[in-house]
Design goal:
The protein contains seven helices and seven strands. By secondary structure, it is an alpha/beta fold. Bound molecules: zinc ion.
């Protein structure tokens, strides 16, 4: 017996299944939904993905997601450019912005090994407080020490978001109230 196969459908299942957090069953459900139940929604999704992928780049100053060379935070004249919040992922900027607790600027550093020192120095120009908004873990503590050491010659106060943010939990999974409190009650390091 030949294996039952609808190639275009399987390709779509594989594509959905390659997304983070989507298992095989969900991938089949999503693929079935867009091809059989909501073709128009499927086309809209395909278009939104294409537009997003083509038009979103990294901000040249802070590495946030941006549709332009500079993101809308870096180009906002009402932002307090003396406060720089360092995050591990541009996704964390969305979470912090939602908390409406911070009016400074950001810088994204995912991994120490990807850090461009000269670019970091450019980003901290004119900054008097660097706030680390990393989820607490041994790895992020090491990153904080490393970055602080690189910038130690500069006249900058270093703070981090207060404990109360649970260890090992990603920022996007922390409720806004806890994050707001953690930002407000940031501690000197
Ligand atoms: Zn930016």
């Amino acid at each position: 017996m030949r294996k039952y196969k609808i190639e275009a459908f399987e390709n779509l299942v594989d594509a959905f299944g390659s997304l983070p957090g989507v298992g095989k069953k969900t991938a089949v459900r999503l693929a079935y939904h867009v091809v059989m139940e909501d073709g128009f929604g499927g086309m809209k999704l395909a278009h939104a993905i294409e537009t997003g992928v083509n038009s979103i780049q990294k901000c040249s100053k802070c590495h946030n997601m941006s549709e332009d060379e500079l993101c809308s935070i870096c180009s906002d004249p009402y932002r307090d450019t003396t406060k720089l919040c360092i995050v591990q992922s541009a996704k964390d900027i969305l979470t912090i912005e939602e908390s409406r607790q911070f009016n400074g600027i950001y810088y994204v550093i995912s991994e120490i090994q990807d850090m461009d020192e000269a670019h970091l120095f450019y980003a901290v120009g004119g900054v008097d407080e660097v706030i680390f908004a990393f989820p607490p873990s041994i790895a992020t503590d090491t990153m904080i020490l490393y970055i602080e050491d690189k910038l130690k010659g500069l006249d900058i106060n270093f703070t981090k978001i207060a404990q109360g943010v649970p260890t090992g939990v990603e920022l996007e999974n922390i409720d806004i109230l806890s994050l707001s409190r953690a930002l407000e009650a940031r501690v000197k390091i």
